[in-house]
């Protein structure tokens, strides 16, 4: 996952249009929430959740994890994932992050998990993916990319609760042979 | 759907932290995309897709549509939906919009569709929902909220392609008796 936006975002202090100071108040347009409103030009600044998109790459009995070379959670293990960008779909973003973080070539499968993390204003989406080989070429955000069988997963060293929940559902589904779409709230 | 953010967002001209002018360039941190970077304090401003969350409310054989009282697409029909807010989950946002736009009380069902609209930087998510009654109390964004059977749907007057695609999949699934999770790219 990229270092991009901080998990808890700082307030908007200045207007993106004209640079004047903003103040948080409820707009006069029927809105019910406080927004950062420009004191000079009146521009209303909306703040909304971000999507994090990634894959659960599988090769036979094993899944691919990446050891993080960035904060937060340096040294912990994660699935390849990062902030969705403009001009891409959730699936395209998931493939891009898999290439950037693991240097792994995959064939994308179906959506597997949608996890809400309202405490940090994020929605995480993971797709199943089939690895083309066990050769990886991780980018600068990853110390090591390697395959783990279920009994090798470093459960105590998983970087994010969304990754842990996704992995748990995957191994449970694999035992039943039926892979659903899992919607989970991390509260 | 709320009037919130414009479909194609204007560039970020000033820094949200200090108000100084920004310039678009690729940051020096390994990023590959142009970002609005502050000329004074160096703050990097990320721009990411927004989620629109809503429901497909059902009462027996009929579904609920709302006639829009706001631009864009004033007078066209839509499912209740709007921009996801901070501090809520996708499901909570879908319920909130159903209450705000239709004044409809529902029991939320499973996620039904996830639609990417990369041309406007949006992801739309619709949940199935069961209406408690045929009494609605629409808000100021809605001219009228009413129930339609399949052969009454005003297909030529549907406000958004994501709503049309969701309704089409719903009636198709209803014929088979099996409701899946539909991932669709609107390109």
> At the fourth CATH level, what is the homologous superfamily of the largest domain in chain A?
Nucleoside Triphosphate Pyrophosphohydrolase
CATH topology descriptor of the largest domain in chain A: Nucleoside Triphosphate Pyrophosphohydrolase
Element string of chain A (H = helix, E = strand): EEEEEEEHEEEHE
Mean pLDDT of chain A: 94
Terminal CA distance of chain A reads: 20 Å
Biggest beta sheet summary of chain A: 8 strands, mixed
Unreliable sequence segments of chain A: 3-7
Number of helices of chain A: 2
CATH class of the largest domain in chain A: Alpha Beta
Radius of gyration from the alpha-carbon trace of chain A, in angstroms: 19 Å
Structural class computed from helices and strand pairing of chain A: alpha+beta
CATH architecture annotation of the largest domain in chain A: Alpha-Beta Complex
Query: Roughly how much helix do the residues of chain A carry, as a percent range?
Result: 10-25%
**What is the assembly state of the chains in this entry?**
homodimer
Count of β-strands of chain A: 11
Largest interface: A-B, 47 and 47 residues
What share of the residues of chain A does DSSP label as strand, in percent?
25-35%
Protein name (chains A, B): ADP-ribose pyrophosphatase YjhB, NUDIX family
Pfam families (chains A, B): NUDIX, Zn_ribbon_Nudix
GO molecular function, one term (chains A, B): hydrolase activity
Organism (chains A, B): Oryzisolibacter propanilivorax
């Amino acid at each position: 996952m990229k270092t991009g936006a901080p998990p808890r975002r700082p307030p908007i202090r200045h207007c993106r249009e004209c640079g004047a100071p903003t103040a948080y108040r409820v707009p006069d347009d029927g809105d019910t929430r406080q927004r950062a409103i420009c004191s000079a030009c009146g521009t209303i600044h909306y703040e909304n959740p971000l999507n994090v998109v990634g894959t659960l790459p599988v090769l036979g009995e094993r899944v691919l994890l990446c050891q993080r070379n960035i904060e937060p959670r340096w040294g912990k293990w994660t699935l390849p994932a990062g902030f969705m960008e403009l001009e891409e779909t959730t699936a395209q973003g998931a493939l891009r992050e898999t290439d950037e973080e693991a240097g792994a070539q995959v064939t994308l499968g179906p959506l597997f998990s949608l996890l809400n993390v309202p405490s940090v204003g994020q929605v995480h989406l993971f797709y199943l993916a089939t690895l083309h080989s066990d050769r990886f070429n991780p980018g600068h955000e990853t110390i090591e990319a390697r395959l783990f069988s279920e009994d090798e997963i470093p459960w105590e060293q998983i970087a994010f609760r969304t990754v842990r929940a996704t992995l748990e559902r995957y191994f449970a589904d694999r035992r039943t042979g039926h892979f659903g779409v899992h919607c989970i709230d991390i509260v």
